[in-house]
Amino acid sequence: MLEKNSIQDIVKVIKKRIFLILSIVVIVSGIVAGINYYLLPDIFQAQTQILVNQKSTSPEGDPWSRNESDLQLIDTYNVIIKSPAILNKVIEELKLDSTSEALSQQITVSNQVNSKVVNIIARDSNEKQAVDLANKTADVFKEEIPKLMNVDNINILSSAKFNENAKPIKPNKILNVAIAGVVSLLLGIGLVFLIEVFDTTIKTEKDIEEISSIPIIGVISPFESEERNRSKKKLQEQRRNVIV
């Protein structure tokens, strides 16, 4: 536990260089705010849900076995959705200036545990483009998957829809600026103490005592120069003469 004097010393150091600390906070926070508000593009997200069922090869097949087989193939469907076989056609139909590798980075495919519902999530700096990507990827998958696998029952549960008032999912500008403020505050305080540690100049009697390990037995007060004393006395005499 810190002693009272130690805490007081810490507070004194911070107070002495509070302007430096605040300057660091303002500068770093301002830079982060400028990057977030003016340089980083807003990213919007759109989602489409599809339900995939495998074609039954036997009309008398066990429904439970077919369901388990469908669930085991979900991971395969997720890979197929992001494959060039699907994404190249999406690029062609939407006339995108992109590649399947780049488009793959914009699309996320997922599903909940033990669920045959596949979520197709598309992200783009343009919200309408994100909506088009999600919907077109689902449409192309529905069209192409019967040719690739033994699947004939694909239903689109929900399509992505354009919303003029949609908010971007990132960057989280307020959060980023707040984090920058806290981090810069800590950095500023750390820098102040670092400066204090490496500052070897003697400022007070206490500094002399700590360096020399010799107790101080007296202090000479500041005194004015002889010329200044004469000037002060002369001024006082002139004032007395004026009063008389």
Automatic annotation (TrEMBL):
Top-level taxon of origin: Bacteria
Named from the GO MF annotations, one term is: protein tyrosine kinase activity
* Major subcellular location class: membrane
Sorted alphabetically, the Gene Ontology cellular component annotations on this record are: plasma membrane
What sections of the sequence does the record tag as coiled-coil?
Answer: none
What subcellular compartments does it reside in?
Cell membrane
Q: Which Pfam families match?
A: GNVR, Wzz
Give the Polysaccharide chain length determinant N-terminal domain ranges: 7-94
Sorted alphabetically, which keywords does the UniProt record give? Cell membrane, Membrane, Transmembrane, Transmembrane helix
Per the record, membrane topology reads:
Multi-pass membrane protein
Which residue ranges does UniProt annotate as crossing the membrane? 20-40, 174-198
Stretches assigned to the Tyrosine-protein kinase G-rich domain: 142-194
Family per similarity comment:
Belongs to the CpsC/CapA family.
The molecule here is called Capsular polysaccharide biosynthesis protein
Question: What species is given as this protein's source?
Answer: Ureibacillus chungkukjangi
Lineage of producing organism? Bacteria, Bacillati, Bacillota, Bacilli, Bacillales
